[in-house]
Structure formats: structure tokens, C-alpha cells
Automatic annotation (TrEMBL):
InterPro entries named in the record: AB_hydrolase_1, AB_hydrolase_fold
Listed Pfam families: Abhydrolase_1
Domain AB hydrolase-1 intervals: 53-96
Annotated source species: Longicatena caecimuris
Protein name as annotated: Pimeloyl-ACP methyl ester carboxylesterase
């Protein structure tokens, strides 16, 4: 099983560090974004083109992307026609969401906060304002789900509220997009489930690819 792993914005490939122990097969490729490319990237597509140039000639069974990495995964399949069995995106907002999804970590998971914030601050110097704006304000990427030539799975943290009735509604997606998505929720986590609850996230991913 060959998997391409894509980190989120301002994250390095080490964001997966708590999960790598469960994915030791040599076929797993953990992407590192080029700082030279990031320094010039005005839109996510600029990063996607570089990822495709460096990794797109190989074949993969799945592409797994966190946050911005999920959008890159969708662009790789929708715009560059990479052929995979499925895309698994984690905490990728396809449209601006309701407030329920706008948090980084649960308070009880604060032990990883200092390390996480240090990484985000170190990487932030490579991100142009135009790219930050696209990631935070001016985006509607739901169409990519329709254009992807494979199965698409969305994974989100449950924010510690597994019974919250509007968790799907608050993704702010249309019915056609939701119909093509298979959604899963990681217990006791927010935007960083690979840090907050890596065991449950791993269980979900392995369940999908099996």
C-alpha cells in the first residue's frame, strides 16, 4: 500500500511524528514542502505544481492530506489527474466553516501546544500574505470533490462533543458535495488529530484503506 502524506500549512512533515510508528512501510512518502517554492507561492496551486513535479510521477494507492494538504491532494487528482484509490483529507475546510470548527486544540491536549506553536511560528516566515489570505478567507474548494476521479474521505475532530447535532451542517457544504464525501470524526480532537488522538486517527485511516 503506497501512500503520499501531505502536511498542512506552516506544518512540516514531522506533524505526523506520533503516527509514523504505525506506518513504517517503505512505501509511505512523507512530503516536505520546499521553502524556495513557499517563498514565492501566492496560491495553493503553486505548491501543488511543485508537489506534482517532485512526487507525481510515482503511483500511489492513497493521498492523505492535513488541512492545506487536503486541498493539494484534491488538486493533484482533479487538476493533474493523478490516479489513486482514494483521497483522505484531515481537517480540510472546503469552505469557511461555522465557529464549531475554528479551534486548534482541545484545552486538555495543551501538552502539545508549545511544540506545535513553535513549529507554526518557524514556518510562518515562508508564507506570503496572498497565500495566507487564500487559506483563511477567499476560498471555495468544494468543486474539487466533484472533480476528483476517486473516492474522497473527510476526517474531522469531534471537538470533544461527539453528540453535537450540527457537526455536518457546520461544514457549510452543499448536498452534492456531501453526497460524494464519506465523513469520519476523531474523538477528543480539534484541528490537529494527529497530535491529539493519533491512535483513533490511525484506526480510522486503516479502516478506510482496508
Amino acid at each position: 500500500m503506497k501512500i503520499l502524506w501531505l502536511p498542512g500549512a506552516k506544518c512540516t512533515k514531522e506533524i505526523w511524528r506520533y503516527m509514523i510508528k504505525d506506518w513504517e512501510e517503505e512505501d509511505n512518502v512523507f512530503v516536505k514542502y520546499s521553502h524556495d517554492v513557499l517563498l514565492q507561492a501566492k496560491q495553493v496551486m503553486d505548491i501543488t505544481k511543485d508537489v506534482y513535479d517532485r512526487y507525481g510521477k510515482a503511483s500511489y494507492d492513497y493521498i492523505i492530506g492535513h488541512s492545506m494538504g487536503g486541498k493539494i491532494a484534491l488538486q493533484l487528482c482533479a487538476d493533474f489527474q493523478m490516479r489513486v484509490k482514494g483521497i483522505i483529507f484531515i481537517e480540510t475546510n472546503l469552505r469557511p466553516t461555522a465557529a464549531f470548527y475554528r479551534n486548534l486544540l482541545l484545552a486538555k491536549n495543551s501538552e502539545v501546544k508549545d511544540e506545535l506553536m513553535s513549529m507554526l511560528q518557524e514556518e510562518s516566515i515562508y508564507y506570503l500574505d496572498a497565500l495566507n489570505k487564500e487559506l483563511q478567507e477567499t476560498f471555495d474548494d468544494a468543486y474539487l470533490v466533484q472533480q476528483a476521479n476517486c473516492l474522497v474521505y473527510g476526517v474531522y475532530g469531534d471537538r470533544g462533543l461527539p453528540a453535537y447535532p450540527d457537526r455536518i451542517h457546520d461544514l457549510c457544504l452543499d448536498a452534492d458535495t456531501l453526497a460524494k464525501l464519506q465523513l469520519f470524526f476523531v474523538k477528543d480532537s480539534c484541528h490537529m488529530p494527529m497530535l491529539e488522538n493519533p491512535d483513533h486517527l490511525t484506526k480510522i485511516i486503516k479502516g478506510i484503506i482496508r
